[in-house]
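Bench notes, afternoon.
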Amino acid sequence: MFTLDSNQILLLSCLVLLAGAGTYLTYFRQQKTLSTLDQNIEAKKAEKKKIRALQADLDDAESRFRTVRQRWRTQYKTVPETISSPDIVAYLTELTQTGFKRFDITSSGSDDRDGYSVHTFSADGEAFFTNLYRFVWTVENNRPFYRIRDLDLTYLEERTTDEETGRTTMDVLVSFQMDIEAIYGAAEEVGNERPPSDGREVERLPVAQTPSSPPLPSSVLPNPAPEINPFYPLVFENVPPNEYDRLDIESARLLSIIDRQAIFQTSEGLRRLGEGDRVYLGRIVEVDPVEGRVVARLNRGGVTDRVERTLRRESPLQQVEGQE
């Protein structure tokens, strides 16, 4: 017969007490802690699932970005399937509204080439160099696919006399001749626009529209304004006209010097000028009442000259400062 001694009874009692205490702590005292841990586990599972979804979205976004970037690169120059002469004329006319004295264009017809077609126009006229430079820059760098060929420039000096005032103005221009090519009917990969895969419509740039700037960083484009005007002469063939009706110090008569102001007699009356004042072709640089002298520095169309006018001793209006 199996009997338990005192040691076995003691160990069995301890085991029962431990099991009871563990059960009590697990299902009664730590129930709240277990619930919190279960919630944390579920939250971590949800977060992991969200991270996987975000990773999938990132891969899809990168794929769409590569597609859009490739499409954008091919859309820099838009090449329509067809193009009409009125559209080309309207586009070019819009670009020549400012700074052009004359802009005449003549159609030379269309030409089919390898994979695309070209409509060529011959253009000639007169314009300020900076405005013509901007026109060529816009045609060459904006999205409509146009090209300038055989550009020929010639210096032009234009003087105009106003019939009412009699004043003569002078403009430094360039006369030009060039061929302008409009590209159309190219293969799809050359530049035709394609709709995005997400169904959104791409805004198509009309031929007769001038965007503010091409869709490229300015660092990869040439300067839109010329650094110098190579057609502006250092020395003019003829002296520039008196556009602003300033005093001609060489033809006017010096009558007097009062308070360091020189008084000149002209056909229109008396004119009073001091040091630093502008005259025709230059400025007055010195008014000397003691010597009765007025000195002006003139720029005769690129040639600097020093002109000195003195008082006539018999002038009744002569006044000399500092004379005792």
